[in-house]
């Protein structure tokens, strides 16, 4: 019994959706890069017509702001430039911020009187609430990439969904 090559799925099942892809941009490690990065991510989502829920966009933009802020505040000495990468899949979106500083940050809950220190903790909370995941990875250059990945739609049982009908 001879078997031919394995059957290939139809192209419409394997071809990427129009909004899928990876976009990367760099910015100086300056405070002014925080709003610029947030606007660039928002504009990219609109240009690519990514079908993402508004509450996920809000969380993603806050996460992007926090990650860029952390890179600017904690890595600028060793990393005068940072990179922001946005990856969009069929049902998810990931934002990653890379710098050349080798230190891996840890999420800590700041005390009520603290002015800062909540950035990565906030990223973890927003990501968990959206049903996503986040992590820190070392880069080939010896630095790190801090990323958060969110589903395009909030979880059905999450706090952002309407209450069930009676």
Describe the structure.
The chain is α+β, with helices and mostly antiparallel strands. It has a single domain (29-151), classed as Histidine kinase-like ATPase, C-terminal domain (Heat Shock Protein 90, 2-Layer Sandwich). The chain has helices at 11-14, 33-47, 54-75, 119-129, and strands at 21-28, 81-88, 92-99, 133-138, 144-151. Helix 2 (33-47) runs antiparallel to helix 3. It is globular, with a radius of gyration of 19 Å. Residues 159-166 have low confidence and may be disordered.
| Structural class label | alpha+beta
Number of strands: 5
In which range does the helix fraction lie? 25-40%
Radius of gyration: 19 Å
Query: How many helix segments?
Result: 4
The fourth-level CATH homologous superfamily is Histidine kinase-like ATPase, C-terminal domain
Coarse morphology: globular
Domain count, please report it: 1
Beta content comes to 15-25%
Oligomer: single chain
The biggest beta sheet is recorded as: 5 strands, antiparallel
Task: Please identify, by name, the CATH architecture.
Answer: 2-Layer Sandwich
Intertermini distance: 59 Å
The fold-level CATH name is Heat Shock Protein 90
Mean pLDDT: 85
Query: What CATH first level would be assigned?
Result: Alpha Beta
């Amino acid at each position: 019994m001879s078997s031919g090559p394995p059957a290939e799925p139809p192209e419409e099942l394997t071809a990427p959706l129009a909004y899928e892809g990876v976009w990367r941009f760099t910015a100086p490690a300056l405070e002014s890069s925080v709003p610029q990065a947030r606007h660039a991510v928002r504009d990219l989502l609109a240009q690519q017509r990514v079908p993402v829920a508004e509450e996920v966009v809000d969380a993603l933009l806050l996460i992007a702001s926090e990650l860029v802020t952390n890179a600017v505040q904690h890595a600028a000495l060793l990393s005068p430039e940072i990179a922001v990468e946005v990856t969009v899949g069929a049902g998810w979106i990931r934002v990653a911020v890379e710098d050349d500083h080798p230190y891996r940050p840890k999420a800590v809950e700041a005390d009520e009187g603290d002015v800062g220190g909540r950035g990565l903790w906030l990223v973890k909370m927003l990501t968990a609430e959206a049903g996503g995941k986040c992590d820190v990875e070392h880069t080939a250059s010896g630095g790190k990439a801090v990323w958060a990945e969110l589903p395009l739609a909030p979880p059905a049982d999450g706090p952002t969904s309407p209450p069930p009908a009676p």
